[in-house]
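Box 3.1 A note on notation
Throughout this textbook, protein chains are presented in two layers. The first layer is the amino acid sequence; the second is a token string describing backbone geometry. Keep the layers aligned when reading.
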Amino acid sequence: MMINNDHTVQGYSLMFAIVNQGKGSKILHTIAEMGICGGTAFYGRGTVPNHILKLFELADVRKEIVMAAMPAADEQKILDALISKFSLNRPNKGIVFTFPLSAVYSRNYAYQGPAFCPVEGTPWQAVVTIVDKGKTDKVLDYVDDHGYPRGTVIDAHGSADKSKKFFHLMFETEKDLLLMITGREQASPLADLLTDHLDLNQPNSGILALFNLKETAGITPPPSANTAAGGIIKGCGGYSAIFVIVENDKDEAVIQSAELAGSTGGTIIHARGMCPYYGKIFLSHGIEEEREIIFIIAEDEKTEGICRQISGDLGLGPGGAGRGIILAAPICSVIGMAKAE
């Protein structure tokens, strides 16, 4: 990650780029050339709302999602470069969006900023829903029938708490992360729709989180969306999202450390990372190594403690010997998690 003390006032942002399969590595190389080292990519699938395509099992379009942290002062320059190089301002070429980070921990740097949700910027929100695998297609059909975008599906698995083991193995349930980008006016009704359909107010039914976005590109608003007005802007909901990106097979250690600091588990995504800064260069390209992304939702008052616990245990903080990074971002609303007494 590029470190520049001049950016600490404005903080850091987390960028997501969703592109067609085969473009992820090119995005990683492009941002690396601009000084943003340590980007991470993983697979997803876009879903086409066409019943004829679905009949012939062609309704899913393979996608790649690239995520990277960057100084907020540089994000517009980087987004402009990606838009220009990959034609993201044209239909069906991909989308990019960013939201603010409230904490960054790596072996070269630690940044702890204010946990704020952007009230200015784009009129968009990201709706992220974690559901058991097997329910996703029905959920997609349901939201499509009600006029909402079908979104992108990301394969993942859940983590049992540390006490639920058999022969020292963690039980992991297959999960899907459903990511939908919608206007702020549509986000709350969509969240209510999903809450009722998935019964998210009941324990262990799933989790839904809403993020206020800062910058976007490649997203076409629906005809009925009044995006110019911005819609209802929610404040922070008392929770944060923690993204821990580590080497393959380190996910169990991350989960155990997080639980020591009060986490109730996480969702794990298999990924690959660009590592040009470890001296592994082949034909002028960085080696893409296997990675795990552990996605944890935690109460704000526990977030810093969880980050520091993981950072200390895995050596991810300044001066540590571990390889990885911890990113925290504010969530403007969460459904499906009860606050601890």
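The chain is about 25% helix and 35% strand. The mean pLDDT is 80.
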